Amino acid sequence: MLTFLIRRGMTLVVTLLVVSVLAFLIPYAGEGDPARKILRARVNDPALDPAQVEALTKELGLDRPLYVQYVDWLREVLTGGFGFSFTSRTPVQELVVPALGVSVSLALAALLLALVFALPLGIWAATARGGKVDNAVTFMSQSAVSAPEYWVGPVMVLIFARYLGWLPSGGWTGPAYIVLPATALALRPLGYFTQVTRAAMSDVLSAPYITAARSRGLSFPRTLVRHGLRNSMLPVMTLFSFWFAGLLGGSVVVEVIFNIPGMGRLLYTSVINNDVPVIQGGMMLILTLAVVINTVTDLLYGVLNPAIRVSSHA
Amino acid sequence: MPDTMSTRPVPRPNQRPSELRSATPHRPNVLSLLVRGAQGRHWTFAVGVVLLALVLLVLVLTPWISPHDPATQDLGNRLAGPSADHWFGTDHLGRDVLSRLMWGGRFSVTIAAITLVICAVTGSIIGALAARRGGWLDELVMRSVDVLICFPDVVIALFLIALFGTGYGTLIAALTITGWTPFARLMRGLALEINSKDYVEAAEILGSPKSYIVFRHVIPNASRPVVAMGFLRFGHKLITVGALSYLGLGVQPPDSDWGAMLLDAQPYMERAPSLGVLPGAAIFVTALSVTMIGQGLDIKKRRKRAKEPTAIPVPPPSTALVEGEAL
User: How large is the ipTM?
Assistant: First the structure.
């Protein structure tokens, strides 16, 4: 257990270093020097005053060697944050934290919605393997994982917002605003959750302890809940947290379509506007969170299932 | 003598023919795998093969069968409905939608296929070498997989675009950085299993170099699960390429793909809904077909492997995680 923690901790540190170096290099990559690019992002004027460029280069110390600048930047990041957004002139933290909150609620809503449908469907299919229900569920889950959000989302907006007028087409100001984006986002996890539930449940149902429980006279539904669910939920839970980590920054498309002020849209707009401090802060936060959440999941997995703790190496 | 000198596996008396076939280092190609029939497979497998064949046929024949030039504008005939001349109508610049779907599909499918091949080949080789060599290399590879597999593709793509700007190189690199990991993980599991087989031990005793064993025994024997995974990942790649184009960061004008067509259609969704439906449907059908094929191959593989007792317990290739990577 301890070696596992140390190993994962070191992995995290190395990852952060690599990501931070890359994030630091964003203003230096591509053509043109960073001072010029920063000024361009700030003032949005293609004709730059050379004196201004010179002054900014001096001011930011951009004429020093790269590694010195990196160490300075890293110290600043670790103590004082990422500085100010070029476009809105607010501290990066004040942009990132609320955006992350929005993304967390959107991701949770979508994944819970997916789970609510996936669990019964997967279990139903597993109890009737090879039958009509199983076939239908398989086809449905395959369709769900193949449906792009940027196709389903706009079509749903057209039907439910424009034609029927039941729901708002975009924005983030009330509970009604979460329905369409969460549904669009839920579709693909729904497919994967269903498949994993079905697979895990079929494995469990063929286990000897299920036969034993049934022959002790336990009714089928009760066996299903008491022995089946408890033993088949682990893979589903892992997948859930995996998707959760991914959706924190990865729901870019849905957030852009529905105009939701979440992390994905923030990253997207900052890349479009070349808003370097926000890109740096957002990327480092999202990628760190992804690794941390998955490490915690692996730990929990070991806690909940002693059988694999031994082989934490794999 | 030739039998003992050769590194080919010697058939054991109690070996079943199917096992024998998979043990010979003959490389089954994708086509023969598909043609070998839908017998004993789920009906969705056959549906997937037919759908994919249709899509590929249309895309390959596009230069000869597309009814119009995809770029020719006809501003007097904007957003027109279906007609004899324009089967699927015209877009906001009066261009023929059917022709644009065909030509756009070539971009979408080609980019997805290129990244997929790069991911499958590099991932498999890395996974096989990690299993074969073990030690620090294995540790390095598996830790990298642990980390990279959690990164959402689109976020990595945004990161690379911030660094290098948009372009086909960035697009393919973004999808490859995370895309090789499921293949490496799968291949490592398979390789550990294959490495414990008698014929690999025989090859080792005969002094074959490690790279020979990897390329001669491990990779050919693992090809079926890897191909299955390839089909499963193809749909995901196609959807991600489309997503980036939809965000205006993938295929750049004047080129266009299905995702970019959806982006163009957004302002006209109410006037011409088909513009926003057809390209998405094309992505959906193509992704669905490869998913069906991949799962069909995968299911058969699992059934077969379940019957053979393996020498060492293979860590679960964690299909769950691998499939969950489809972000």
Answer: 0.85
